[in-house]
Amino acid sequence: MGKSEFKTRPCEWCGEPVQQPESRWRKRRYCSKAHRRKNRIMEAVAELLDIW
Known about the structure:
Layout: E1 8-10, E2 17-19, H1 33-51
Antiparallel strand pairs: 1-2
């Protein structure tokens, strides 16, 4: 059993594998804060465009 395997899922921005924390209810969706910020900016822009 010696090898500890981390669960990973792809970053929603660039597809890099992101290590997931042990707790089930917290999921990390991005490999970095910059990607999370980029995604939030893109969502805000999309929301603005929807309004106009």
